[in-house]
Amino acid sequence: MAEAHATGDVTIRSAKWPDSYLRICDENGVTINCSDQIIRFEMLLLKPNDDGTHTITGTGLCGEICLSVNPTDGKLGIVESVGPNEKFDCRSAGNNTWSFESNAKPGWYLRMDASGPHDPSDGYGVVSVQNDLGDDGIFLVDSRSWA
Fold this sequence. Notes:
Elements: E1 8-14, E2 21-25, E3 31-35, E4 44-48, E5 54-60, E6 63-69, E7 76-79, E8 88-94, E9 97-102, E10 109-113, E11 125-130, E12 139-143
Antiparallel strand pairs: 1-4, 1-12, 2-3, 4-5, 5-6, 6-7, 8-9, 10-11
């Protein structure tokens, strides 16, 4: 990851749908989707790991929660600690945009589909991983100050 990349307090939003923010929530079960506004569950931390990867974390009802990729089926979930399934290789996609490749499932990328319409449980769009890097897997990472 380039040094100019934001870490710490960030929002992660789709480059294809720039009004769609990654949302990680553990309220009433696990919800990983996107939102068209920045409230509590869109305020994330992008944490560097010692091996050069990064972990995407949010603040849940039970404390810090990490975005996790199941290496068997590629489904997203959340856990409370960092292991290999919670690490992403962040790669520059040009023009200050980034992709997030799963460390647990190499070749699979975080993606966001906010093309709508969606089931209300999907929020403003669907977040998943895909086995190729399309334009729905390119993100803008914005530094934020929550003070």
